[in-house]
Write a structure and sequence with these properties.
The structure is a single chain. The chain is an alpha/beta fold and 294 residues long. The chain folds into two domains: 4-138, Cytidine Deaminase, domain 2 (3-Layer(aba) Sandwich), CATH 3.40.140; 148-287, 3-Layer(aba) Sandwich (Dihydrofolate Reductase, subunit A), CATH 3.40.430. It is built from eight helices and twelve strands. A seven-stranded mixed sheet has the order 8-7-9-6-10-12-11. β11 and β12 (280-287) form a beta hairpin. The chain is globular.
Length: 294
């Protein structure tokens, strides 16, 4: 069972892994923390983009020799194959860690899986540590694997001039691979963030066939897509495939007469968060089940 120090380290790994959102795709955003023999954090790292070192290697590099006999706390099962970089399970074995804690198992793991190979090397492995919390970051990537298409978020305003919400949307753009602006342009959420030869931005008109549009997104390497604006044609085209909606509504005085308004949250969505990030109220809702391509 994970110790309090190890749980703290896993939450730290989850926190730093979020810095890879919007740049790691098609790879997952992963974080890792290395604890020494005494349970003291001595290294941490996260994956930034495909082709760069993975989280475990970055954390081990920071820890150096202090990793020997220690514990690696990682949000996703260490990879078990040689792609653009060597397998992370081998880096952990070579570093002589004695224990590995994993939040989420990797459905793309090759062969026996990284966890099994670690165990064969005599390393203790604990699975499912704070799994649900780690899914806050890894969820869209896993959704993309499960459905064969990117996770789609639609952000729009009700009763607010949408031209005034750009500043509020900047942070949201940063965590998505592709952004469909309200005037139709398609951009990286982080311009140039994915690096070369690992990702491309679709060009030309998307067309009016949902299956083709989604296929273009998927083939670009995107795991997450943000559609902006209530009048966005792509949002209407992919309405049945939207997985999450982010709705900004105007704030009101403590006592006021309500104005007629359309339904804020569609019936097929469930409200999961509400807050005030600026001069408006922000609602976040998720679809109860993933939409499918007809």
């Amino acid at each position: 069972m994970a110790t309090p120090n190890e749980l703290t380290a896993m939450r730290r790994a989850i926190a730093i892994s979020a810095q890879g959102l919007g740049t790691t795709s098609p790879n997952p955003p992963v974080g890792c923390v290395i604890l020494d023999r005494d349970g003291i954090p001595v290294g941490e790292g996260y994956h930034l983009r495909k082709g760069d070192h993975h989280a475990e290697v970055n954390a081990l590099t920071a820890a150096g020799e202090r990793a020997e006999g220690g514990t690696a706390v990682v949000t996703l099962e260490p990879c078990n194959h040689h792609g653009r970089t060597p397998p992370c399970r081998q880096a952990l074995i070579d570093a002589k860690v004695s224990r590995v804690l994993i939040a989420v198992m990797d459905p793309t793991s090759r062969g026996e899986g990284g966890a099994a190979v670690l165990e064969q090397a005599g390393i203790e492995v604990e699975r499912g540590v704070l799994e649900q919390e780690a899914l806050l970051v890894l969820g869209p990537w896993l959704h993309s694997l499960r459905t064969g298409r990117p996770h789609i978020t639609w952000a729009y305003s009700v009763g607010i001039n949408e031209g005034h919400s750009d500043q509020v949307l900047t942070e949201l753009r940063r965590t998505h691979d592709l952004v469909i602006r309200r005037y139709g342009a398609i951009e990286e959420g982080v311009l140039g963030g994915h690096g070369e030869d690992a990702f491309r931005v679709p060009t030309g008109p998307l067309g009016d066939e949902p299956a083709k549009v989604v296929r273009d997104f998927t083939e670009s390497g995107a795991r997450s897509v943000l559609i902006e604006g209530s009048d966005n044609e792509v949002a209407r085209l992919l309405a049945d495939l939207v997985d999450r909606i982010v709705i900004d509504v105007p704030s009101t005085p403590p006592s006021s007469v309500p104005t007629p308004a359309s339904k804020l949250v569609p019936s097929e969505f469930r409200l999961v968060d509400a807050g005030c990030p600026g001069p408006q109220v922000r609602l976040i809702a998720i679809r109860e089940s993933a939409g499918t391509i007809s």
